[in-house]
Amino acid sequence: MVRIVGPLFSIAASGTYRGCILFKTRQGSTFAAGPPAVPASRSALQRAHAAAVGVMASFYTSLSVADRAAWDLSAGAAGIPTYRHYWREWFAQGSSSSSPPSPP
Asked: Is the dihedral angle over the CA atoms 7, 8, 11, 15 positive or is it negative?
């Protein structure tokens, strides 16, 4: 929790403000150090999701010209970028490396 006395960048500021600014004091001067460090460790669910996204990305980049055209048409109808549409359908259809999604 940040404790601020005076303006936001006052010399008495210290701590974290809303999780996005980290105030530090060194040798009598206060400075904004940027966002607080986030631990690099991931949970098992995050690692599994990252692996699924990696598989999905490799399938997307290897689409044939005809498949890419079908996805472009479907994404245009939905009004979103093709990659985002493919990503959404990958998870909505419960796809995997053995069963990639088909355009809706």
From this structure: positive
Of 79 and 19, more confident: 79
Q: Which pLDDT value is given to residue 5? A: 56
Residues 19-63: tens digit of each pLDDT: 677 777 777 666 667 766 666 777 889 888 889 889 999 999 999
**8 CB contacts (<8 Å, ≥6 apart)?**
17
Q: DSSP readout, 37-68?
A: P------HHHHHHHHHHHHHHHHHHT--HHHH
Residues facing residue 15 across a β-bridge: 23
Q: Which amino acid is at 18?
A: R
Beta bridge partners of 21: 17
Q: Which residues contact 15 (CB under 8 A, 6 or more apart)?
A: 1, 2, 3, 22, 23
Mapped onto helix, strand or coil, the DSSP state of residue 86 is helix
